[in-house]
Amino acid sequence: MDTARFIPDDLTCTIAGLNYLQTPAGKALSEAVTHRLAQQRTISVADISLWRRQHPEYSVPCAIAVSQCRLKAADKFPGQSNELWAVPEALQQATSARVAAYKAQRIANLAQPKIILDLCCGIGGDMLALSRLAPVLAMDISRVRVWMAHNNAMAYPSKYPVMVVQADLQNFPVQLSSRIFVHIDPARRSDGKRNHDFGATHPAPRVLFAVLEKASAGVIKLSPAVDFSTLPTGHLELISEHGTVVQALLWTGSASTKLGPNKRTATVIDRTAIWSISDSSTDMAGAELHAHQPEKWLYEIDGAVTRAGLAVALAKELKLRWLSPDGGYMTGPHYLHHPALTAFEVFDNFPYTESELFRKLKDAGKQLPASARAVEVKTRGGLGLNTDQLQKKLSKICAADYTVLIYRCAHGKACVIARRCNKPAGG
Question: Please, where are the H alpha helices in 290-385?
Answer without folding.
Answer: 303-307, 311-318, 354-365
